[in-house]
């Protein structure tokens, strides 16, 4: 490598390092690199349409309990027991069986489960947790897990205000005792957040393990609830696909979605893959790309084929037979009644 090339390379490295350090200083977290296996930057940053990580401030929520309720954080971010991988930015709050759980922020109920009456102190029970998930309209979702049997107080599609009771504390799923497992996510990974009570009572909004807080989450009689979240134009950039417009994630049975954009890869087709969130075979639909990679595909959601429920969806390039497509994860789509 020549001296000039070395200087250019070194300068670029220094600039990237300083940019990364700037994100660390702003967010207070340990990395700003793109995490392997995900299409987006690490929690606390978003991927812009040019494929660059853009820092954003952590969201601020209220504690998910009624005003005046005292709770203890038994496990916080990166907890050694279970808060690893996808659950890295989760928070466990102590609560008694049947205690009310409230919305930490206004939104629309994305998903609900309350039919499980089973829990145990073993990861094998993880699939048995009851929960409520709220879509806040900005691409973030708060999740409330381990609710008691028949302990969800809301239904899918319902609008809720911050402070409104949405469920009851329990110990379903992977749990040793009643508690609330709370997360904020973008449905791909959990995100860091701050709590109003932390700022007021501790001088720092980050939830701290082995620390007590008193909820300041007042019930609101009225609130502004935005629209459902959508996938952005760059949601499939990791597959070489850029869309012309966002993609709705909540549909009615019989809906039709038009997906158009440009594919930058070498494969001759673009495929849209769908299946039930629970199980089943992937259904793939392919269209040819144009000479400049442009494409447009109509995706129907007939009620008999896609009844009310949750589905997985991904877009990829594909060969002439609509094969040779691969992906490690997928997005959730809700079909509401």
From TrEMBL:
Which residue positions does the secretion signal occupy? 1-35
Phylogenetic placement of the source organism: Bacteria, Deltaproteobacteria, Bradymonadales, Microvenatoraceae, Microvenator
Q: Which Pfam families match?
A: Peptidase_M23
What positions does the domain M23ase beta-sheet core occupy?
A: 90-185
| Protein name per its UniProtKB record | M23 family metallopeptidase
Question: GO molecular function terms here?
Answer: metalloendopeptidase activity
Q: Which SUPFAM superfamilies does the protein's record reference? A: Duplicated hybrid motif
Which UniProt keywords are given for this protein, alphabetically ordered?
Answer: Signal
The scientific name of the source species is: Microvenator marinus
Give the matching InterPro entries: Cell_wall_metabolism_enzyme, Dup_hybrid_motif, M23ase_b-sheet_dom
């Amino acid at each position: 490598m020549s001296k000039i090339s070395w200087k250019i390379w070194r300068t670029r490295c220094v600039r990237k390092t300083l940019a990364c350090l700037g994100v660390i200083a702003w967010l207070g977290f340990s990395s700003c690199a793109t995490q392997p296996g995900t299409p987006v930057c690490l929690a606390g940053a978003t991927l812009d349409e040019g494929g660059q990580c853009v820092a954003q401030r952590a969201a601020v929520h209220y504690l998910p309990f009624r005003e005046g309720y005292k709770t203890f954080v038994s496990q916080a971010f990166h907890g050694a027991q279970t808060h690893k991988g996808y659950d890295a930015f989760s928070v466990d709050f102590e609560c008694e069986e049947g205690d009310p759980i409230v919305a930490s922020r206004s939104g629309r109920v994305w998903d609900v489960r309350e039919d499980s009456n089973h829990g145990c102190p073993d990861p094998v029970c993880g699939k048995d947790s009851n929960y409520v998930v709220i879509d806040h309209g900005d691409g973030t979702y708060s999740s409330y897990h381990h609710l008691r049997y028949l302990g969800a107080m809301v239904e899918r599609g319902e609008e809720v205000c911050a402070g409104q009771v949405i469920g009851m504390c329990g110990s379903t799923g992977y749990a040793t005792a009643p508690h609330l497992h709370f997360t904020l996510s973008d449905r791909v990974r959990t995100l860091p957040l701050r709590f109003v009570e932390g700022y007021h009572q501790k001088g720092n909004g980050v939830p701290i393990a082995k620390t007590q807080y008193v909820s300041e989450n007042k019930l609101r009689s009225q609130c502004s609830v935005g629209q459902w979240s959508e996938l952005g134009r760059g949601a499939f950039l990791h597959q070489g696909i850029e869309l012309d417009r966002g993609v709705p994630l909540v549909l009615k049975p019989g809906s039709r979605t038009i997906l158009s954009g440009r594919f930058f890869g070498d494969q001759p087709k673009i495929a849209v893959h769908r299946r039930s969130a629970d199980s089943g075979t992937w259904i793939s639909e392919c269209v040819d790309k144009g000479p400049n990679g442009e494409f447009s595909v109509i995706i129907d959601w007939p009620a008999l084929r896609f009844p009310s429920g949750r589905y997985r969806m991904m877009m990829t390039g594909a060969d002439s037979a609509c094969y040779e497509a691969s992906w490690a994860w997928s997005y959730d789509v809700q079909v509401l009644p």
